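TICKET #2291
ISSUE: user wants both folds in one file
ATTACHMENT 1:
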Amino acid sequence: MGKPSLKQILDALKKQVLVGKSYLDLAKGLLKADPVILLSAPTFFGLTTDGSLELAQMAIARLYDKESRAVTVRKMLDQAGREVESFNHGTEDEVRNAIAESKQVLAELEPVLASIRARRNELLAHLDPRTVADPKALAAKANLTIPDLERTFKETEKMLIKLACLYEGTVGGLNFWGGDDYQAALDWIRRAKCESIEKYEQEFGERWTGPRPKDCSRGKFDLL
């Protein structure tokens, strides 16, 4: 089996950042969505939110895996250091400085990476007996917030883009085209819910007393 080139490694790592960051953005968007809309399918939206947060963590876990054969950010930096002469869009000093800065960022991210590693090994990829016996212990030991995940993706993206720019001249952030299309789906649900409420009020001639989505017209009852 052949050894992957530095370009292949950079491309694979950038894809992990792209996918993981997109899962995180989806979870954040759903957490901020109108609760009335989410209640239209609580199981679906609840599992989608939780699953997206777990997949975002797993993407970071893959990027910084400790498994000896895994392709990781650290392995990429080591290979870049051995192949400085292959960077066609930067001087040797620029490349070495970018590698050194990236390793400093990794050191600063280590507390977050340690929490993700523990969560991956004791819950997400494996059910550790200690976690089953005491789920709160893992949460306390491996505390993790959405801002932690945001920071890790942001810093990882910056270092990969910088090195890719020096290596092959590519620039630009990592984003799916239409990555926020879930918002359109939520809006269609909002519209359908509003239409259902309006139909109820017209048919029965009384105000809808249940939850109402934001920006949902109250029709003739606005005047009462």
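ATTACHMENT 2:
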Amino acid sequence: MGMEDYPKTLMELEKQFSSEEECKRYLISLRWPNGFICPRCECGKSWPIRNSTFQCQNCGYQASVKSGTIFEGSRSPLTIWFRAIWWVTSQKNGASALGLQRILGFGSYETAWTWLHKIRRAMVRPGRDNLSGTVEVDETYIGGLEEGLRGRGAGNKALVVIATQMVEKKKIGRIRMIKIPDASSESLHGFIGSSIEPGSTIITDAWAGYSGLEGYRHKVINISKRAKSASDLLPGVHRIASLLKRWLMGTHQGAVSQDHLDYYLDEFTFRFNRRTSSYRGKLFYRLLEQAVQIKPAPYRSIVKNVRGLKHRNHNL
């Protein structure tokens, strides 16, 4: 397989991945592009013992291409997984469990919902680059709460902190966002430290939680003393907050639990940061590439705290 070899259309997908063997070969090339590396001892020498399964010559550990990935333990064919991932990445405005259930003919909504959450866990690339340059940072409540009540009277609304890399005065580059417990210095500084390269210029409003930032050039805009609105003074984060809320209400009808909100934020970020990809197939390639790099997500850990989904032992 050549560098970044991926189908450009649904017809190409159907032709390229018509069998389980073709899917496994493709995953092997993505997971071990330079040959098998033992997940346990990192030795590069192995014997093929079954189709897509290798045994390490050093420690004897046996690993299949699916083990240690989101596909581990799944009884469903990879051909179905590939079609699910293609469909998820081809939906311009995001994917819903109901849509996935219909397109793949799943017997239950529960199965489609669980698959989507497994796929969303692959939307964060391990070791991804932090934002840099000029970055706006602000928070917003998800759930329709009025602005300006940071940490006071939030009720059961979720607080999300957003960072947008500004490549020109009002042009947005890449973004990051996570749910935070409150707007304290600990929460905000922790997010900034894990998401933004030191030495970057960070633009925030005058909220006290941002004060004392070390290792960054910190530009503070005191919105209450400006004639312009907050959306004019911090255009990037306000634009993203608006798009995020519209997306959650449109694609998911606002039916997102706080326990799983971070995974929806990851999906929004994955889509936004790759919005200029000329081919949907490139997103399919990236998502599969990341799917073989992340740890498996057991069914029980996915449905924890979700009302209406029964805790059964599924190998989906």
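RESOLUTION: both attachments delivered.
EXTRA DETAIL ON ATTACHMENT 2: The CA atoms of residues 111 and 138 lie 36 Å apart.
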